[in-house]
């Protein structure tokens, strides 16, 4: 790679061109609101002075998953276009309608992450998917898709990816989340279609919807920057190598076996063994109705935050660790305490 290459071309996206060594924002028109206001996809491109890969990072494909919006803001603030190698396309809010409404879905209740590849004349979700593929994904070799848990759930920071693909595995390892989980492709997801078109995609899960928690944001900011460093787009920035990710394969939800008030003693990142007590269900006077037990050995990668659960509700998500469980640290995330005032809505 030539570091003194000075004739790099401008980067074209939408109706703009971004000159090498600069950063520029644009908006790709999607549609109009019923009020007449234009709705568009906000994009910022960092086009490095020097050659390198083209990578996208996006958030809020589910409109209430705001953690990634902050992750992208912090990553962009850390970059210098003059020193950057390659091109980063940042799309902090893909589901603009859902984001405005604090809602996972589009106004017609479609899930944008089941609407790829979409088409120019399809549903609103399909049109956004199509636009995103054409203007962003088609130009990139690597993508990072930032998510949080769904409504009233929370997730340990984790990368879900095709760990059987050596290149994808390298990138997931470079991110160095507490957990990397080999996961199956979901039909119609961004990861599915982008993968078919040759991009390596990391799906990142971290935190809860409609909240900013530093424990969810910080590992992702570091992770995205580590991937950029692994791709030689930025210089390495850490003195010490990060703690390697614990690799998991297969996961499942422990379900409530009674309806009741849930008190969980277990926490995100905790390593558990099959049969371990994770909490209990109580009636409204405090009588224990039923304990909740781990149904497998593994690490807790997600749990409900709902205090009231119905029989059959998913309450704790446990992923199975590949190989011997890591002895140290016992907890993959030592401090999940967060300032309650950090909540966007609560
Ligand atoms: Zn999501």
Automatic annotation (TrEMBL):
Alphabetized InterPro entries for the sequence: AstE_AspA_cat, N-alpha-Ac-DABA-like, N-alpha-Ac-DABA_deacetylase
List, for all copies, the residue spans of the domain called Succinylglutamate desuccinylase/Aspartoacylase catalytic. Answer: 51-230
Q: Where is this region: Disordered?
A: 327-346
- Cofactor section: Zn(2+)
Keyword annotations from UniProtKB, A to Z:
Hydrolase, Metal-binding, Zinc
Residues that span the membrane, as ranges = none
A molecular function annotated in GO for this UniProt entry is: hydrolase activity, acting on ester bonds
Presence of keyword Metal-binding = yes
| PANTHER family on file | BLL3975 PROTEIN, SUCCINYLGLUTAMATE DESUCCINYLASE_ASPARTOACYLASE FAMILY PROTEIN
Q: What is the protein name for this chain? A: Succinylglutamate desuccinylase/Aspartoacylase catalytic domain-containing protein
Lineage at the top is: Bacteria, Bacillati, Actinomycetota, Actinomycetes, Micrococcales
């Amino acid at each position: 790679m030539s570091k003194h290459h000075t004739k790099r071309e401008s980067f074209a996206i939408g109706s703009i061109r971004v000159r090498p060594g600069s950063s520029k924002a644009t908006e790709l028109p999607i549609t109009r609101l019923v009020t007449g206001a234009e709705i568009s996809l906000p994009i910022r491109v960092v086009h490095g002075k020097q050659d390198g890969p083209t990578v996208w990072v996006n958030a809020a494909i589910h409109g209430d998953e705001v953690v990634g919006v902050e992750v992208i803001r912090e990553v962009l603030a850390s970059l210098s276009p003059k020193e950057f190698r390659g091109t980063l396309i940042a799309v902090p809010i893909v589901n603009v309608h859902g984001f405005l409404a604090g809602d996972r879905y589009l106004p017609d209740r479609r899930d944008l992450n089941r609407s790829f590849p979409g088409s120019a004349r399809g549903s609103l979700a399909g049109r956004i998917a199509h636009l995103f593929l054409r203007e962003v994904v088609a130009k990139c070799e690597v993508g990072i898709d930032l998510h949080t848990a769904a409504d009233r759930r929370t997730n340990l920071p984790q990368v879900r990816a095709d760990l059987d693909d050596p290149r994808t595995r390298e990138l997931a390892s470079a991110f160095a989340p507490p957990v990397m989980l080999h996961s199956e492709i979901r039909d119609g997801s961004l990861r599915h279609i982008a993968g078919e078109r040759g991009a390596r995609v990391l799906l990142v899960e971290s935190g809860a919807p409609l909240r900013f928690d530093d424990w969810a944001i910080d590992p992702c900011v570091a992770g995205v920057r580590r991937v950029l460093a692994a791709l030689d787009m930025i210089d390495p920035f850490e003195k010490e190598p990060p703690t390697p990710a614990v690799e998991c394969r297969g996961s499942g939800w422990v379900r409530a076996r009674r309806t009741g008030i849930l008190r969980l003693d277990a926490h995100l990142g905790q390593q558990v063994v099959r049969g371990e007590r994770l909490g209990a269900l109580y009636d409204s006077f405090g009588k224990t109705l039923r304990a909740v037990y781990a149904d497998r050995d593994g690490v807790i990668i997600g749990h409900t935050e709902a205090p009231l659960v119905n029989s059959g509700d998913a309450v704790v998500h446990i992923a199975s660790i590949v190989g011997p469980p890591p002895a140290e640290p016992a907890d993959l995330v030592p401090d999940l305490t967060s300032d309650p005032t950090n909540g966007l809505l609560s």
